[in-house]
Amino acid sequence: MIKNTLLLGCAISLASTMAFAELPPLAKKDRYKVGFAQTESNNPWRIAETRSFKETAKSCNWDLVYTDAAGSAAKQVADVDSMIAQGVDIIFLPPREEKPLLPAVLRAKAQGIPVMLVDRSVDSSVAKAGRDYVTFLGSNFIQQGQLAAQWLIKNANGKGKIIELEGTTGSSPANDRRKGFDDEIAKHSGMTILASQSGDFSRDKGRKVTETLLQAHPDVDVIYAHNDEMAIGAIQALEAAGKVPGKDVLIVSVDGTRDALQAIIDGKMGVTIESSPFFGPLACETMTRYANGEKIEPWVRVTDRIFTISNAAKHIDEAY
Ligand code: GYE
After folding, report:
1. Whole-angstrom distance, CA of residue 256 vs CA of residue 271
2. Using CA atoms, how far apart are residues 81 and 186, in angstroms rounded to an integer?
3. Starting from the edge strand earliest in sequence, which strands make up the sheet with 299-301, in order?
4. Residue 271 phi/psi, 5° resolution?
5. Domains of the chain from N-terminus onward
6. Residue 120 Cβ < 6 Å to ligand 1
7. What is the pLDDT of residues 234-269, one digit of tens each?
C-alpha cells in the first residue's frame, strides 16, 4: 500500500516534470488566431513593428489579436492573460521588461499555448527557450553595443567624454546594449562614461535627461543613446544649449529610423546600428516551421547593418 502510494507519487512528479519539459505543440491549420502583445506605440520603431505584424496577418492567414500595453508591464501581463482566456493558438510577445512578464509566459505554456518572444527577451537565468517558451526572435544587443563603441573608437578624433542614454530600465536591449558598449569602452583608457541614465527609449525623456546631464557635465563630447528616438531628443537638447551636434558632440545610436538616417545625412549623427522592427515575415516563417514539427533553435537571430554617412542616403527610403 505504502509502496503503491510512493510509486504513484513518483509517477505524478515524473509526469509533471515531463509536462514541464515539453513545449505546447502548434497544430497545422489553414488559419491561426495569433496574439501580438505590443509594449507601447509612442515611437516609430514600435509603429513599424505593429504594421509589419498587421501586414503579415493578411499574407500568413492570421486572425490577429492585437493589444498595446501603453508602456506598462502590468498591462502587458493582463493583455497576455486575456489572450490566454481567448484561446489564441500562439502568442508573439516583446516582454517590455525582462522579469515582470515571466509569470504570464509560464501561464501561457501551462494552458497549452506556445509563446515566441519577439524583439526583447526575458531573464535567461530564470526562463529558457525550448523549455518555457519556444524561441527568441531578435537582434544581438550586446553586439550592437560593441559595434557602436567600435565605430566611436575609430571616429572619436580625440573625443571620449561620454553620456549614455539608456533604454527602458530592466529591458533586455537596455541591459545588453549597455554591456556591449561599456565593456568595449572600458578597454580604452582615453574614454570615460561621465554619466549613464535611462531615457526609457523615448524622444521626450531623452531630451529632458540630456538637458539635465548637460548642466552637470558641460564638457561632454559624445552621446551614446540606446535608440534613435533618445538620440534625436539629445540632438534637440544640445541645439537648445547652443552646441553643434556632430561637431561639438558626436552622436552614436541604435535602430535605423528615418529621422536618424536624416540626422546622419545632415551631419548631426555619426552612426546608428540597425535593429530591424520588421518581424512579421520572420514570425510567420518560424511558426510555420514549428507547426511542421521542426525543432526551433533557441534564438532566431536577426542580422543588423551599420548606417553611416557612406550609406544613409541609399537606405533612407526603406526606413520608417
Ligand atoms: O531599439 C527601441 C524599441 O526592443 C529592439 O525597443 C527593441 C527596442 C528598439 O522601443 O527603439
Report:
1. 9
2. 42
3. 62-68, 32-38, 90-93, 115-118, 135-138, 299-301
4. -155, 150
5. 24-137+278-302 (3.40.50.2300), 141-275 (3.40.50.2300)
6. yes
7. 999 999 999 999 999 999 999 999 999 999 999 999
Q: Going by DSSP bridges, is the β-strand pair 115-118/299-301 parallel, antiparallel, or unpaired? A: unpaired
Can you read off the three cell numbers belonging to residue 47? 509603429
Ligand 1 atom closest to the Cα of residue 201 is 10
pLDDT at 19 (0 to 100): 44
Q: What is the pLDDT of residue 157?
A: 87
- φ, ψ of residue 123 in degrees (nearest 5): -60, 115
Q: Which three cell numbers stand for residue 283?
A: 514570425
Among protein residues, the one with the nearest Cα to ligand 1's atom 7 is 119
Strands (E), 59-214: 62-68, 90-93, 115-118, 135-138, 161-166, 192-198
173 CB near ligand 1 (under 6 Å): yes
Q: What is the pLDDT of residues 51-70, one digit of tens each?
A: 999 999 999 999 999 999 99
Please check the confidence at residue 4 and state whether its pLDDT lies above 70.
no
